[in-house]
């Protein structure tokens, strides 16, 4: 059976990971996108079980304490985590599992899964990122500023990832992600 693997997609809030991921999943339905648990309130249009599992903080804390999360982190005042069971099941079945998570969670995954592939999505510039965050207009000024501060710290850590992709054009960024995922590595030379 094909071997399952973990693909970690990280990048600052507002960089367009969601749009990229939706396109990637349309092109490659064989990939499995992990649905995270969060204590954040749903945004307009978000659905429980499709976008996130929205839970209370005590429920989240219970899951973390019971080792039900593969990784978790606090981000801009809310908790986010990857449900362990679903991911492990899919990996055992040989599927490639995509985690769309922030930097701290990505580091936890790299520690536990040394062969996970890390892809970091960069904005064309920090200025553009701020504009995108403000256009979303779903959050308070304070929340936007917290996200921007975090974005700067995340961008500084981009070289911890195997691949860096600048999201200046959706098509180009997608092509680069596909190349990272599906281009076969150089064959190993085996001595006989
Ligand atoms: P948002 O509130 O914009 O949906 O997500 C905020 C941040 O949390 C994003 O950077 C997103 O990648 C990250 N995130 C979403 N799910 C998870 C998760 O399960 N674990 C971690 N560590 N981060 C997550």
From TrEMBL:
Recorded GO MF terms: ATP binding; GMP kinase activity
Cellular compartment(s): Cytoplasm
Enzyme Commission number, as recorded: 2.7.4.8
Residues covered by the Guanylate kinase-like domain: 4-182
Alphabetized Gene3D superfamilies for the sequence: Guanylate Kinase phosphate binding domain (3.30.63.10), P-loop containing nucleotide triphosphate hydrolases (3.40.50.300)
Cell inner membrane found in the keyword field: no
SUPFAM superfamilies: P-loop containing nucleoside triphosphate hydrolases
Enzyme class of the recorded protein, top EC level: transferase
Catalytic activity: GMP + ATP = GDP + ADP
Chain positions recorded as ATP binding sites: 11-18
GO cellular component terms, semicolon-separated: cytosol
Residue ranges that the Swiss-Prot or TrEMBL entry lists as coiled coil: 126-154
Keyword Transferase: yes
Function per UniProt: Essential for recycling GMP and indirectly, cGMP.
Similarity section: Belongs to the guanylate kinase family.
Protein name: Guanylate kinase
Taxonomy of the source species: Bacteria, Bacillati, Cyanobacteriota, Cyanophyceae, Oculatellales
